[in-house]
Every structure is written in C-alpha cells, then in structure tokens.
C-alpha cells in the first residue's frame, strides 16, 4: 500500500481506496487483452484475404459473333392483343373550343399614361426597352 492509499483508508474505510489499489493491475490486464484481441482480428483478416487470393477462379466465357445471334424469345407466350382501329371525328367539337380574346390591362394602366403596353415595348426604341428611360 502506498502512502496515498493509506491516507484514503483513514478518510474512507471502503470504496475508493480498493479501487485505486486495483486500478493499475486491472488496467494493465485490460489493455493487454484488448490489444491481443485486435491483433488476433487483424491476423485473421490478413490470413483470410491471403486464402481468398489463392483460391481458383471459375470463369466460363463463350464468344458468339454478332451475325450468329438470334432475336430474343418473347416475354410471354400469350398472343398479342388485337389492334383497335381509330377513326377520325366526323364533326368538329362544339363545346370547349377556345376563343381568343384581347389582353386585359390592369387598372393602373388606365390611370398612368406612362405605363407601357406590350405593343409599345415591342415597337419602342432599343434604349427605352432596356433602361426604361429615354
């Protein structure tokens, strides 16, 4: 027992003094066992990879020229569905026909004469269209 643990035994009769006394012994054993386990795992993986590298490889390659290949077999043995004849409509539709209408201007366009419409922007000089001022 060291002087430090003797002092702890006087202060605390059980608990910490026993743990401090046994800590060094058990820490050494734990590190030794853990390092041994990791070393064993490493050697097993190294041996396994060396064993797998030396095993015979089974390969079978058949080379068939392109001109000798046939069409693949059909996915199912069922007959294809019958073709449906599509006829053109006999009369033009009378419902839901789009009718073009002119673009509506927002209310601020009617009040502000400087508000540019699409036609004004299309036929405006290039400076006005880019910067907005002339």
Multimeric state:
single chain
User: What summary fits the major beta sheet?
Assistant: none
Q: How much helical structure, as a percent, in the residues?
A: 40-55%
Cα separation of the termini: 100 Å
Structural class: mainly alpha
How does this model look, in words?
The protein is built from five helices and no strands. It is mainly α and 134 residues long. The protein has a domain at 3-54. Helix 1 (3-11) crosses helix 2. The longest helix has 39 residues, at 16-54. The protein is flat, with a radius of gyration of 46 Å.
What's the SSE blueprint?
Layout: H1 3-11, H2 16-54, H3 107-111, H4 118-122, H5 126-131
Quick recap:
This protein is mainly alpha-helical.
Sum up the structure in keywords.
48% helix; 0% strand; 134 residues; mainly alpha
């Amino acid at each position: 027992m060291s002087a430090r643990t003797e002092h702890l035994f006087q202060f605390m009769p059980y608990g910490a003094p026993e743990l401090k006394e046994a800590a060094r012994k058990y820490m050494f054993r734990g590190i030794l066992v853990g390092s041994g386990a990791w070393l064993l795992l490493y050697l097993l993986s190294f041996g396994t990879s060396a064993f797998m590298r030396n095993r015979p490889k089974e390969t079978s390659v058949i080379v068939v020229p392109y001109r000798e290949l046939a069409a693949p077999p059909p996915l199912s043995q069922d007959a294809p569905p019958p073709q449906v004849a599509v006829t053109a409509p006999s009369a033009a539709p009378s419902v839901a026909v789009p009718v073009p209408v002119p673009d509506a201007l927002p209310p601020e366009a009617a009040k502000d004469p400087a508000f540019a419409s699409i036609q004004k922007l299309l036929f405006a000089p290039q400076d006005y269209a880019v910067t907005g001022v002339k």
